Automatic annotation (TrEMBL):
Top-level taxon of origin: Eukaryota
Organism whose genome encodes this protein: Hymenoscyphus fraxineus
Region (Disordered): 79-98
The name this protein goes by in its record: Uncharacterized protein
Transmembrane segments: 37-57, 131-151, 157-179, 200-225, 245-266, 333-356
Keyword set, alphabetical order: Membrane, Transmembrane, Transmembrane helix
Biased composition (Basic and acidic residues): 89-98
Statement: the UniProt record of this protein carries the keyword Thylakoid: no
Length: 374
């Protein structure tokens, strides 16, 4: 979502630069408003700040924190008994004292405490831990997908799945870097052994398949409902009854993607992350409480086990309180993104008004046309 908005803003910025370079004329020779240089710098600085903010929300709040939620184990119960005083004047109490328990809240129960832990592990930069391996994996993923698509359109659906499975080790490395204590080693030297690929290949494939279902199912449903046959510019001429039917169809398309994400993508993602976390080396510690044995479900290889949690056990050991925390985290991220977009839109229009004054009316598209600048 953030990348789409950023791409749109960059496109509009290129259009503005073209108008300024052509002396305020569009490619077709039509006279356009020419933004002053200081106005371009102001808008550019705003978009840069917005890009940084959206990147942090997308990466830190949308990826790192949910990953920590997925692997944090319930805090251990701390039991203690109050020690009676020896004051003879004090009234006598019941000698049978019940044990009192204190259950500290999980670190990931709030963004504030999670960010405090991250900052304590490396300052502000820790909020972007693992960013380099993530960046490399995204480049490699896009390269593989586009290469496969150039061969055949069949890879539109299976291409991302193949790419995800092929790069499963990079995904594993990212998860282990995010959840573990800082290391002086570079991310490249922290890549897991090749033998771990087969242990994460299947859960990686399952997640990739569910993600494609969440993307493709709404599209095919929209095609089946005939939503792609309507020209958005002609919606004003559509009758109220047909408009209502189209609205219901749009809601059905949206709901289909939401249901797949809720019931398939999120559980598959949790399962993969917990399987990956079970492969963390014994020599490394996590930055949040983490039960390596998964309630005794993981049997070390040294005693004849696989050394990795099974997919079903990975999901079953993810208790309901953690599931609620994860959903809350996703909802918070959604509202953060909406708030950022709203602030960005207001800031851009306010700056355009400062720059253009009454000429801001030029941005209103003529009938059947397009705005002068955006």
């Amino acid at each position: 979502m953030a990348s789409t908005l950023t791409g749109s803003l960059m496109k509009r910025g290129m259009e503005v630069a073209t108008y300024a370079r052509n002396g305020g004329e569009a490619d077709g020779g039509e006279k356009q408003y020419e933004l002053p240089l200081w106005g371009l710098f102001m808008l550019g600085a705003t978009m840069m700040v917005a890009f940084i903010g959206m990147s942090m929300v997308e990466y830190t709040f949308g990826r790192i924190i949910p990953t920590l939620v997925m692997i944090e184990s319930p805090p251990e119960t701390i039991s203690f008994e109050p020690v009676p005083t020896e004051d003879s004047d004090a009234p006598k109490k019941n000698p049978e004292l019940e044990a009192e328990t204190v259950k500290p809240k999980p670190i990931t129960s709030s963004f504030r405490t999670t960010l405090q832990v991250l900052d304590s592990k490396g300052g502000f930069r820790a909020r972007f831990r693992g960013v380099w391996v993530f960046f490399v994996s995204q480049i490699a993923f896009n390269f593989i997908v586009h290469t496969l698509l150039s061969l055949s359109s069949v890879f539109r659906f299976v291409g991302p799945i193949i790419a995800s499975v092929a790069l499963a080790q990079l995904s594993l490395a990212w998860t282990l870097i995010v959840i573990s204590e800082p290391s002086p080693k570079t991310w490249f030297r922290r890549l897991p052994a090749k033998s771990t690929w087969k242990k994460v290949a299947i859960p990686t494939a399952v997640l990739a398949i569910t993600q494609q279902l969440a993307l493709q199912l709404p599209f095919f449903l929209a095609v089946g409902l005939g939503l792609t046959e309507h020209d958005p510019r002609q919606l004003a001429n559509v009758g109220s009854r047909k408009t209502g039917m189209m609205l219901l169809s749009c809601l059905a398309v949206f709901a289909s993607g939401l249901l797949v994400a809720f019931f398939l993508v999120i559980p598959a993602n949790v399962t993969l992350v917990r399987v990956q976390a079970s492969l963390l080396s014994d020599a490394e510690e996590t930055i949040v409480p983490f039960d390596r044995s998964f309630n005794g479900k993981v049997i070390p290889e040294i005693v004849g086990g696989t050394g990795v949690i099974g997919m079903l056990d990975a999901w079953k050991t993810f208790d309901w309180s953690a599931r609620v925390r994860l959903l809350k985290a996703y909802v918070k991220v959604l509202f953060l993104q909406i708030a950022l977009y709203a602030v960005l839109i207001l800031a851009i229009f306010a700056q355009l008004f400062i720059i253009m004054g009454r000429d801001i009316q030029r941005l209103a598209p003529p009938e059947g046309g397009h705005p002068a600048l955006i």
